[in-house]
Amino acid sequence: MTEIFYAMDHVLLLADYNDPERHKHLAKHLLISLGEEITCFVEDEQATCKGIIISSNVLHTIENNGNDILVYLFDETTDIAKEIEEKYLQDNFYYVLNSSIVQEIKMIWQKDMLKRKNDKEIQKNYYSIYQKILRVCNLDTSKPYVTDERVKKVLLLLEDMEEITEGITDYLAKKVFLSKSRLSHLFKEETRISLSSFLVIMKIAKTYEYILLGESITEASIKAGFNSSSHFATTNKNMFGISASEFRKDVKVIKIK
C-alpha cells in the first residue's frame, strides 16, 4: 500500500517507490529506505545508499530494490526547502545522508509510527514524529503554527470549499478585509509557505480525496478546480512527481491538520 500524508508545508509518501522513468519536478526530496540500500539515479550520476536528499528540477529515478521508502517532498517556496539547499545541497544535485542519521530516522519511524492504530492517532502524533526526523537532519523543527485569526479564517474557508477557483485569492482577501498582497504576505509569515503554492497543494489534495471517493480522475480534477484531468496530472507530476494513475492502486491518503 502507498500511504500519502499531506500537511501544510510538505507531502510524505510511504511507498514502494520505484519509477524507472527519469523525471523532474519542483520539490526537494528527502528519501529514507526503511530496509536495505536503494539505487538513485540523479542526472548522469548514480548513488547507492540508504538515505539521500535530491534537489528540485533535476532528472532522477529510484530503484527501491524491494524496500519501502519514506519520501518527503518539500515545495520550493517553503522555508524547509531553502534550509535544505543551504545546509546540504549548496547547488549540487544531491546529498547522500550519513548512515547514522538514516538509522536514527528509521528507529523514530518504527518506534512511533508503526504503533499507530487509526487515522485520528496518526494526525495527533504525526507532527511530533516529523519534528524529531527534521531535528535528526539538523533542520529547523518549527511547526507552522497559525496565530493570526485572519489566516485561521482563510484556512477554515478553504477547508469547506469543494473547489479552488482562479479568483479565490480575491474572495479570501475580501472575507478577511485585507488586500491580496497583504493577505499573501501574512499567509507566508504565518505558515512558512506561499499562499499560491498552498492553494495548488489544496487543489491537488481535494482531487486525491475525490478520486479515492470513487470519482474518475477527470471528474475529480474538474470538481477540485483544475481545467482538465491533464492539467491536474501535469501539475501533480511537476510538484510532487506522482502520476495520477497511481491513485487507482492501493493508496491511502491522510490529511495532517
UniProtKB/TrEMBL annotation:
Query: Looking at the record's lineage, which domain of life comes first?
Result: Bacteria
Q: Which Pfam families match?
A: HTH_18
Query: Residues in domain HTH araC/xylS-type?
Result: 152-250
Give UniProt keywords alphabetically.
DNA-binding, Transcription, Transcription regulation
Q: What is this protein called?
A: Helix-turn-helix transcriptional regulator
Which species is this record about? Answer: Clostridium weizhouense
What does the record give as the organism's lineage? Bacteria, Bacillati, Bacillota, Clostridia, Eubacteriales
